[in-house]
Design brief:
The chain contains 7 helices and 13 strands. With 281 residues, the protein is of the alpha/beta class. The strands form 2 sheets. The chain has an 8-stranded mixed sheet. The protein has a 5-stranded mixed sheet with strand order 9-10-11-12-13, with helices on one face. A hairpin with a 2-residue loop joins strand 2 (59-70) and strand 3. The structure holds zinc ion. Zinc ion (ZN) binds next to loops. The site of zinc ion has 5 residues, from loops.
């Protein structure tokens, strides 16, 4: 990297932090909707701690998708297990668990009066198959994607947890690269935050809601409340040191913002959120 482009990156990073430093009430109408994008019934929760806790115990995880309305623009965060699974009664058994979809994402959008083509931006916390099941629904969206995440997901053989077939539509999609953090709408209201470790380009999402206050969506930085409390690192994880370092970053942001933290796979955290037609704002 030459000095000029490095200086450019630093300037971009400083700009992001400057614009995000003040938790101001956004002028645009900002709402957070939580959609049901499936359920994972895990055979062995030992998968989610590389220090042996819960080995042999079964468990259930929520799989939400989140829709952010910003004025007349829409951002979808994560796409769930995949609408194709709704056609399989009882779901399918794969990757160490039973994957079940009771309600399709397309159907839930329709109930909100939206078509997939109405979604302007889509961002995945990471490219694992339980977050990328409906990539094919949004060929016209602008994809906010870390090039490092995409490159790692496209490696051969495919990394554990990645289904390359699900990501194929991204080969021809409009990609807006996310290097580090991204201020999605340019007003500090919705920030994609760099939190790598679980995967190379893993991200979390900060939404500064005017009435409810800041909300932080973890992605899979943490899989359970216990993992957050005890700083447990999952077994399938690309960089343990990064994961621990970005626990620190995430907790620093959560404390500074006094944010409500939503662990996306936590059934308790997700159950506490309103379902459409209700929202947080
Ligand atoms: Zn996941």
């Amino acid at each position: 990297m030459n000095r000029l482009s490095f200086a450019g990156l630093v300037a971009t990073a400083l700009f992001t932090f400057a614009s995000s430093a003040t938790a101001q009430v956004p002028t645009a109408d900002l709402r957070l909707y939580t959609l049901d994008c499936g359920t994972l019934a895990l055979d062995d929760m030992g998968l989610f701690s590389d220090t042996g806790e819960h080995s042999g115990e079964s468990g259930v995880m929520a799989v939400p998708c989140f829709l952010v309305r910003h004025g007349d623009e829409w951002l979808l965060w994560d796409t769930g297990l995949g609408d194709r699974l709704a056609a399989v009664p009882g779901g399918v058994h794969q990757l160490g668990g039973q994957w079940t979809v009771r309600r399709t994402l397309a159907g839930q959008l329709q109930e909100m009066g939206l078509r997939p083509a109405d979604i302007d931006y889509v961002a995945l916390s990471h490219t694992h198959a339980d977050h990328s099941g409906n990539v094919d629904l949004f060929p016209d969206a602008t994809w906010l994607t870390d090039p490092a995440e995409l490159a790692a997901a496209r490696a051969l053989p495919a990394p554990l947890g990645v289904d390359p077939e699900l990501l194929k539509p991204l080969d021809t999609a409009k990609i807006r690269p996310v290097h580090g953090d991204m201020d999605v709408f340019g007003d500090g209201s919705v920030l994609i935050l760099k939190t790598p470790g679980h995967t190379a380009g893993h991200k979390s999402l900060l939404i500064r809601l005017p009435r409810s206050g800041p909300v932080l969506l973890t992605g899979d930085l943490y899989h359970t409340r216990e993992n957050r409390a005890y700083r447990r690192v999952p077994g399938p994880n690309v960089d343990r040191a990064d994961t621990l370092a970005y626990f620190d970053r995430f907790e620093g942001v959560a404390a500074h913002e006094s944010a409500r933290v939503i662990i996306q796979h936590s059934t308790e955290d997700v159950a506490a959120l309103p379902s459409p037609p209700s929202w947080l704002d």
